[in-house]
Amino acid sequence: MIEEKKITEAIIKTYTEELLNYIDMDAAIAGSGPSGMVAAYYLAKSGLKTAVFERKLSIGGGMWGGGMMFNTIVVQQEGKEILDEFEIPNKKFSEGYYVADSVLATTLLTSKAILAGAKVFNGIFVEDVVLKEGRVCGAVVNWSTVEVAGLDVDPLTVNSKYLLDATGHDAEIVNILQGKSRVKLSTPSGKMEGERSMWAEEAEAFVASNTREAFSGLIVSGMAANATFGGPRMGPIFGGMLLSGKKAAQLIISKIREEKYGKEK
Ligand code: 48F
Predict the structure, then answer these.
(1) Tens digits of per-residue pLDDT, 98-130?
(2) Where are the domains of the chain?
(3) Distance from C-alpha of 96 to C-alpha of 176, rounded to nearest angstrom
(4) Considering only CA atoms, which residue is closest to atom 16 of ligand 1?
(5) What is the Å distance from ligand 1's center to 220 Cα?
(6) 8 CA distance to ligand 1 middle (Å)
(7) Any atom of ligand 1 within 6 Å of the Cβ of 223
(8) Among protein residues, the one whose CA lies closest to atom 21 of ligand 1
(9) Torsion angles phi and psi, residue 43, rounded to 5
(10) Which residue from 60, 187, 225, 258 has the fewest beta carbons nearer than 10 Å?
(11) Which CATH code for domain 24-260?
């Protein structure tokens, strides 16, 4: 016998328990694009309690469509180690350039991150940060349906030791923080620098060195890093996004360790 009310009870009870479990965590990630999911994987793998909040139902951000909807991604030599870590089948196109199926790459990043222990809450967006005594210490979240319907419904908050802005080109979280609280960011001007036009090589180098803390407690990765610190876009080459996710995770891991055990000598 199948009972409708059992199905309802199973869903509500399980989901609510999960959500309650994540009202306090080590790392909250806004956005499930490639940089966010790679970060989620490495954070969870290191044992940190990690959740991803994604506005859409689908996970993967801008990776599904490859370049102009030709669903192939290109990854340069430096990013190949991450393709291999996630067991994403890839082949050499020419010296230093690897290609992979963007659908398979997206689904593997997603499944491996979840299997490593990260929790993904889709259909929920980050609409603000919790800002206390000059430090970001959580995310303010709401259902995306509330946003779409334009309803005037108060959000809820989750605490996190670190919040990662992996929201892509719009760097939504940094923009919200700066717009609302007029804080000084760690950018050259102290403000959002804004994304520059295409220059693939420069953009890939830029994202590697600018995956960092934009404000106390708030790290940026992927295109959000380039938009925050004033780097160009790179188009459908994804090595920088993957490596940025890994670097964001390493940064958060070392900061949390440092806060717990003190600086390594
Ligand atoms: O844009 P996106 O894929 O982020 P990324 O990791 O990668 C960029 C590349 O895909 C590509 C590129 C590199 O070659 O230029 O664009 O930087 O994914 C960002 C995700 O964040 C979600 C959005 O729906 C998308 O899935 N998102 C954006 N704002 C919010 C959000 C928010 N406020 N709360 C939750 N999710």
Answers:
(1) 999 999 999 999 999 999 999 999 999 999 999
(2) 24-260
(3) 38
(4) 62
(5) 12
(6) 32
(7) yes
(8) 31
(9) -65, -50
(10) 258
(11) 3.50.50.60
